[in-house]
Design a protein that fits this description.
By secondary structure, the protein is α+β, with helices and mostly antiparallel strands. It has helices spanning about 45-50, 60, 70-85, 90-120, 125-145, 165-190, 190-195, 205-210, 215-220, 225-230, 250-275, 330-335, 340, 350-360, 360-365, and strands at about 5-10, 20-25, 30-35, 150-155, 155, 295-305, 310-320, 325-330, 345. The strands form three sheets. It has a four-stranded antiparallel β-sheet with strand order 1-2-3-9. The chain has a three-stranded antiparallel β-sheet with strand order 6-7-8. A two-stranded antiparallel sheet has the order 4-5.
């Protein structure tokens, strides 16, 4: 047996989806062992939340999965509103649902663009960003911000959807199905893309469950689990959509599941816009929540389906105006942990594509 060589992959950002370091042991071009090393970003968001008023903590969640910020806001609010006993009016619930699904599509498009680049595909990058830009335009109109929207708040959303936002969403729904199929064809009809992903990075169901993997990685391994169906929140119980799954468990299956998730999100938004009720967009009890000091007592845990998987938020209140404890269940961290198994006995070139399919965002991991 030849002597193994130690190789560091990362922690530079462009090739590792963030500041991730992989300690790799190579036997020629074959990877024998992989050890992920995290902690370079070290944001300390959970502890910061324990020193900040309940209504001000959303800025830290925006910055966790920063390519899907509205989804992170929903995760925190599902827990905080239960603890505080303040709930949004019906219109705000539906607006949050639309924003969360637009956020999911935007996040998936970022992943598709980056994944293509890692495999030497430049053209899909432009297609993905062209479609994502339409969502960013909606975010700016709704919240005034492109990326870190800070649009939701305890008791509702900061401002209502105006006619321009609705018109932009309807235009997006009109053009996006065709553009999604164009993007998909760039990948699925590319022989090199297929050969580099089919049968590569196979994750079986048992291993996925053992490591606590969720989201597209779990569903691509044959487990039909989605928090939006298993434990519905927002308006998901009133919407018709499917959970994409595959039994293959490889890179290609994770790609296919992701693309189908985009299609399902378009379907959800289409229904939600038609069902969007009239009425207030903010609970009057929390109308001035930035000025009054809301108090919470007890402990709650809420889970949501972020673009990366099951995102959980645990909050303990001691009757004060700030949380006593805040803890987050990061889906990206669980999905990364299984790289120890997926990276064994594969080509070093395949390690890149396998890592790409995990879709990591380190604001959420090194929180």
């Amino acid at each position: 047996m030849s002597e193994w060589v130690d190789l560091n992959v990362g922690p530079h950002h462009p090739s590792t989806h963030g500041v991730l370091r992989l300690k790799v042991k190579l036997d020629g071009e074959i990877v024998r062992e992989v050890e992920p090393v995290i902690g370079y970003l070290h944001r300390n968001a959970e502890k910061l939340c324990e020193n900040t008023f309940f209504c001000d903590n959303l800025i830290y969640f925006d910055r966790m999965d920063y390519v899907g910020a509205p989804g992170m806001e929903v995760g925190y609010l599902e827990a905080a509103e239960k603890l505080l006993g303040i709930f949004p009016p019906e219109r705000a619930v539906w607006i949050r649902t639309i924003m969360a699904e637009l956020s999911r599509i935007a996040s998936h498009l970022i992943w598709l663009a980056a994944f293509g680049l890692e495999l030497g595909m430049l053209t899909p990058f432009f297609y993905c960003f062209d479609l994502r830009e339409k969502i960013m335009t909606m975010f700016v109109e709704a919240s005034g911000s492109r990326l870190l929207t800070n649009y939701c708040s305890i008791g509702g959303v900061y401002q209502d959807f105006n006619e321009k936002v609705i018109a932009e969403i309807e235009e997006f729904l009109r053009v996006s199905p065709k553009k999604i199929e164009e993007i998909n064809s760039l990948f699925i009809k590319n022989d090199i893309f297929i050969s580099r992903n089919k049968g590569i990075g196979v994750l079986d169901k048992e291993t996925a469950i053992e490591y606590g993997v969720t989201g597209h990685m779990l569903r691509a391994s044959g487990v039909e689990y989605d928090v939006r169906k298993a434990e519905p929140y927002l308006a998901y119980s009133q919407l018709n959509f499917e959970i994409p799954t595959s039994t293959k468990g490889d890179n290609l299956a994770r790609y296919i599941v992701r693309v189908e998730e985009i299609r399902q999100s378009v379907k959800i938004i289409s229904q939600a816009v038609k069902k969007l009720p009239e009425g207030p967009f903010f609970n009057p009890k929390a109308k001035k929540s930035m000025m009054i000091r809301l108090r919470g007592d007890g402990e709650v845990y809420a889970r949501t389906e972020s673009s990366k998987g099951e995102f959980g938020v645990y909050i303990v209140g001691d009757g004060g105006v700030k949380p006593y404890r805040v803890r987050v269940r990061s889906p990206s961290l669980r999905n990364l942990s299984v790289m120890r198994e997926l990276g064994k006995n594969v080509m070093i070139a395949d390690l890149v594509s396998i890592l790409g399919t995990t879709d990591l965002v380190f604001g959420e991991i090194d929180r």
